[in-house]
Amino acid sequence: MIRFLFRFVGLWLLAGAFVALIIDGTRSIAASRLILTPMAEAWYAAHAASVQGLQAWMERSLPAWLWDPVAINVLSTPLWVVLAIVGIVFILIGRRRARPIGYSSRD
């Protein structure tokens, strides 16, 4: 049951990654230049209070370079890349174990 939930969520995340890729592609074609939606922008549009809470916590608890928007971090990564990686990880967690090869079922 738990494996099914991991695979189900993973497939939905992969579907979301595909939608985000299509949206970025459409925007890029319309603007005649490459446009990628960063994770931070999409998260801020979905729930701004949680982004601000995370920023306050990170500035208090962690080194400053982790929140620096100039530095390469997860929040500046394109949304479709983050969703695809997390989706693939969830699918791999939920996969079935391979049966050993070479053992007879007649024993």
Protein architecture, described:
The longest helix has 30 residues, at 2-31. With 107 residues, the chain is mostly helical. It starts with a helix and ends in a 14-residue tail after the last helix. It has four helices and no strands. It has two domains: 1-37 and 78-95; 38-75, no CATH class. The protein has helices at residues 2-31, 39-46, 48-61, 79-93.
Give the arrangement of secondary structure elements.
Blueprint: H1 2-31, H2 39-46, H3 48-61, H4 79-93
Helix pairs in contact: 1-4, 2-3
Q: Could you list some keywords that capture this structure?
A:
107 residues, mainly alpha, 4 helices
Helix content: 55-70%
Number of domains: 2
How does the overall form come out from the CA principal axes?
extended
Strands, count: 0
In short:
With 107 residues, this protein is mainly alpha-helical.
